[in-house]
Design goal:
alpha/beta, Aspartate Aminotransferase, domain 1, 14 helices, globular
Length: 439
């Protein structure tokens, strides 16, 4: 064992080359609390990544940690597949009481497996079983997972290429805003033309699957009108509407579900990432009660009974979702972050940048090749963890914990600004005089 701090030798010589995040954040992390992380050398980082949206309540939230440690210390059941357990019962009752009933949602809950792609795969199978149809409609720049069914719905060429086989039974349609300023035709109108035309070649879809905000796709935000029109279109053409809320649910956009503001009710909802509240693997597929036509064991998985995750999920619901305090907190911080990013875009015209996003999923799109990636790499050296998104990694993505203090959110944004300034100077695109955005 090496005694060198932040020694990456084991990762570089033993782990597969498929590893990715460690390449842009070359450190060995040892501790984390709230919105902060520390590496082996003791260096502190402000976390604007939050486990890709898995840690909405921050690292090691003390209330959730206490519940987890108490559960483990009591020799309670850890693994149970879909057997009954006290922890699972408590989660189901708490989820029903705090999330479903207050929203008048008559969804049943399926535990499809531990990750988001498991939730999506279950949704696709169920939609095909219910409708008797095979085809799915997804959208440009979508990301729904890395297993083959989910990958067929994903837009990223690099990720699709990793499948190794033809990705079938899915058609991609333009997402809201795909046509930019061309108002001659909207994205929904375009899709409806294909659905209604006899010679379009598009089979009647079993379902339409959508993210209300495309996180991996570049922080592209669907309008409420788009979502409402999509709901109407799915109903009209006999397709189920699936909302992939894996990264955008659990309060990321303010309300618990990201689609609530649109006033729609999807047929199926996929959630994961922050449902456990503690980074423990857990995923749910929710669907209307009349769609529950599964036979016992028809869709299963060994790790769909992660009881420690049920424990922290129940505690997270009790702690954060019995009132609207967290929603209001997210909305207030979202305004702060949005204002900071708009100022940066205005004060750094050399970056040709625009701010985008909703809630605490926001981005700075930099229309200069490689600028966003170089910015987050410099930010890491300065003590901030952020990633890029978009098909060409052209968006600096902000995905902090929902509980991050406002002054720390501003501090993190300032580090990004300073990093952007540094890269522009290094490229010879800007003088060394610092702008004032975020100050």
């Amino acid at each position: 064992m090496s005694n060198l701090e932040n020694d990456l030798t084991a990762f570089e010589t033993i782990e597969s080359g498929v590893r990715s995040y460690i390449r842009q954040w070359p450190a060995v992390f040892t501790k984390a609390q709230g919105h902060l992380m520390w590496d082996e050398s003791g260096k502190e980082y402000i976390d604007l990544f939050a486990g890709a949206g898995t840690l909405n309540y921050g690292h090691n939230h003390p209330v959730l940690k206490e519940a987890l440690l108490e559960y483990l210390a009591g020799d309670n059941v850890v693994h149970s597949l879909d057997m009954g357990s006290a922890a699972k019962r408590e989660f189901l009752e708490t989820f029903d009481k705090t999330i479903l009933k207050p929203r008048n949602l008559d969804y049943v809950v399926q535990f499809p497996g531990p990750t988001g792609t498991n939730a999506v795969e279950a949704a696709l199978k169920l939609a095909r079983k219910v409708t008797g149809r095979e085809w799915m409609i997804s959208f440009t720049n979508a990301f729904h997972g890395m297993t083959l069914g989910s990958l067929a719905l994903t837009g990223n060429d690099m990720k699709r290429g990793g499948g190794g086989v033809p990705l079938q039974y899915a058609t991609s349609m333009p997402y809201d805003g795909f046509f930019d300023d061309d108002k001659a035709i909207g994205a929904i109108d375009y899709m409806r033309m294909f659905l209604s035309a006899d010679g379009s070649g598009l089979d009647a879809p079993a379902a339409i699957i959508v993210e209300t905000v495309q996180g991996e796709g570049g922080v592209n935000v669907a309008s409420m009108e788009f979502l409402r029109d999509l709901r109407r279109t799915a109903t009209e053409y006999g397709a189920l509407l699936i909302v992939d809320d894996i990264q955008m649910g659990n309060g990321r956009t303010g309300k618990y579900f990201s689609w609530e503001e649109a006033g729609i009710e999807p047929d199926i909802v996929c959630i994961s990432k922050s449902i456990s509240g503690y980074g423990l693997p857990m995923a749910l597929t929710l669907f209307k009660r009349d769609l529950d036509i599964w036979g016992p064991g028809e869709h299963n998985g060994t790790f769909r009974g992660n009881n420690p995750a049920f424990v922290t999920a129940s505690k997270a619901l009790e702690t954060f979702w019995t009132d609207d305090a967290l929603t209001r907190e997210v909305e207030a911080k979202a305004d702060v972050l949005s204002n900071c990013l708009e100022q940066i875009a205005e004060e750094y015209p050399e970056a040709n940048a625009t701010a985008r996003g909703r809630g605490l999923i926001q981005g700075l799109h930099c229309d200069v090749e490689g600028l966003a990636q170089e910015t987050i790499e410099e930010a890491f050296r300065r003590g901030a963890i952020a990633e890029t998104s978009g098909p060409t990694s052209d968006v600096v993505k902000f995905l902090p914990s929902l509980t991050i203090p406002t002054d720390e959110l501003t501090r993190g944004t300032k580090i990004i600004e300073e990093s952007l300034h540094h890269v522009l100077v290094e490229r010879g695109l800007r003088s060394k005089v610092m702008a004032t955005a975020g100050r």
